[in-house]
Design the sequence.
């Protein structure tokens, strides 16, 4: 018995459709549970904690993400995506003349690993009320610095790693201190002997030099248009607030001040007020302008 050709095609289509549904269901289920098993989409770079690069359409001005202005270099917008960004579609708004338009892009999952750290100094895990008040004051000051959007020209000659050394903790690690969950790691840790020189990755204005509770001796650099970097746990800062630094200039020395288990640099990179992976920033600014 032979079925007419068109009927067997219809059957084959039905079988394929059913197979697709059966395969599709478990995929949907795992996606809905926000598991960390989905592969990250490396090509787009739009992942929580990453940088979304977007070529502005002709005539587009004033691009914004979550109502915050974003960095534009030549005709490309570099958009910082927060680690807390929900997966799925996200939106940039921009202007063409007086018209407001929007551009949608996909934010894909990235599986960040876990890290467990044991600290002997309990006050660094569970600070007392006075210490907590200080921590809150310091974090609102830092937040304001991260949200700054200066009209300084963004880096044109790449973005250097501030020192050579062993990467001891990656950006995005989900962290536990003495078994207690804490915020994900918002920077890159580079271990190096105390006293190692730390260099500015690009020209900048120094916007903070202070001794902070968790971060120890700390420097903030403003590189322009919402690109802000932070250097923590220094033994000695070598710059002053308000000073302008050149790319590659020594700004301080590695130490272990604040919440640190040994000498290392904690380096945070912030774009439009969100901490992003320093390694993505180095590669995003390395490719030059178009
Ligand atoms: Zn760190």
Sequence:
């Amino acid at each position: 018995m032979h079925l007419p050709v068109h009927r067997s095609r219809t059957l084959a289509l039905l079988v394929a459709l059913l197979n697709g549904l059966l395969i599709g269901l478990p995929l949907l289920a795992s996606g809905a549970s926000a598991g960390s098993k989905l592969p990250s989409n490396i090509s787009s770079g739009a992942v929580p904690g990453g940088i979304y690069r977007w070529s502005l359409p002709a005539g587009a001005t004033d691009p914004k993400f979550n109502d915050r202005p974003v960095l534009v270099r030549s005709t490309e917008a570099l958009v910082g995506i927060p680690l807390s960004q929900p997966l799925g579609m996200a939106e940039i708004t921009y202007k063409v003349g007086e018209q407001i338009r929007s551009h949608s892009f996909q934010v894909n999952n990235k599986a960040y690993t876990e890290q467990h750290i044991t600290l002997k100094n309990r006050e660094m895990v569970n600070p007392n009320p006075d210490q907590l008040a200080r921590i809150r004051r310091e974090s609102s000051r830092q937040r304001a610095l991260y949200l700054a959007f200066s009209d300084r020209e963004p880096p044109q000659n790449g973005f250097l790693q501030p020192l050579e050394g062993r990467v001891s903790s990656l950006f995005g690690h989900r962290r536990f201190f003495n078994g207690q969950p804490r915020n994900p790691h918002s920077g890159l840790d580079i271990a190096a002997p105390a006293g190692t020189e730390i260099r500015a990755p690009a020209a900048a204005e120094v916007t903070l030099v202070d001794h902070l509770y968790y971060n120890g001796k700390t420097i903030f650099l403003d590189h322009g248009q919402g690109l802000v970097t932070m250097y923590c746990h220094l033994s000695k800062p070598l710059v002053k607030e308000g000073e302008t630094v050149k790319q590659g200039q020594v700004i301080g020395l590695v130490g272990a001040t604040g919440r640190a288990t040994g000498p290392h640099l904690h380096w945070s990179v912030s774009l439009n007020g969100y901490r992003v992976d320093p390694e993505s920033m180095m590669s995003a600014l390395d490719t030059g302008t178009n």
